[in-house]
From TrEMBL:
PANTHER family: HTH-TYPE TRANSCRIPTIONAL REGULATOR RUTR (PTHR30055), HTH-TYPE TRANSCRIPTIONAL REPRESSOR KSTR2 (PTHR30055:SF175). Keywords: DNA-binding, Repressor, Transcription, Transcription regulation. Residues 1-20 are annotated as: Disordered. It comes from Nocardiopsis sediminis. This is TetR/AcrR family transcriptional regulator.
Length: 207
């Protein structure tokens, strides 16, 4: 990118259209942070990979911390929006919980680099941003838990295991996907999501 280019535009994308600078920086950050780690990626590597100047980067992101937080926000915003839709949708609660559980796995696999970065580098965020991340995760957790509690109150889920434990166990399993899942394996995101959701629903079945 030359100094005379508009800071809001970047190089051409796959479809020939110009990709905005923030999007190019996020794409470069996602790839580099996942491949070599947040702390080992320099600002110069980021701007070189994105094909922009440091001035263009600092126009949108004041630091690498800003980019790391933006990577996390992108995935969390997507998953929170999806869960909110499942929670508000009509239909039996068991079907909606199963769909939400499968979707969490699917969206994590589809954005695996984001998940890897989060699992490995969240501690590198500033204290304020770590607190914001925990707050957002808690909101997701509480909404998912409320769906399980609804199923318990309707008698379709077992009531002898606290909903908080159910949600925490499931999220823990999903958060570890970045450590072992391989894109070239036998299962894609939707198939893996169905397996995970099936195990969750089997555990929720009244005894």
């Amino acid at each position: 990118m030359t100094g005379g280019q508009n800071a809001a535009t970047g190089g051409p994308g796959a479809d020939g259209e110009r990709v905005p600078v923030p999007g190019r920086l996020l794409a470069a950050a996602t790839r580099l942070f996942a491949e070599q780690g947040f702390e080992r990626t320099s600002v110069q590597e980021l701007v070189d990979a994105a094909g922009v100047t440091k001035g263009a980067m600092y126009h949108y992101f004041s630091s690498k911390d800003d980019l790391l937080y933006a990577v996390y926000q992108r995935l969390m915003s997507l998953q929170m929006r999806r869960l909110t839709e499942f929670a508000a949708a009509p239909g039996p609660i068991a079907e909606r919980v199963r769909a939400a559980a499968a979707d969490l796995v699917h969206t994590t696999v589809d954005n695996l680099d984001d998940a890897v970065i989060f699992y490995r580098s969240m501690h590198m965020l500033s204290a304020d941003r770590q607190a914001a991340v925990r707050k957002e995760r808690r909101q997701y957790h509480e909404l998912f838990r409320s769906m399980i509690e609804q199923g318990r109150s309707e008698g379709v889920f077992r009531s002898d295991v606290p909903a908080d434990i159910v949600a925490t166990q499931y999220f823990g399993a999903v958060h570890h996907l970045g450590r072992w899942y391989r894109r070239d394996g036998e299962l894609d995101g939707p198939a893996l999501g169905e397996h995970f959701a099936g195990l969750l629903m089997a555990g929720l079945r009244p005894v």
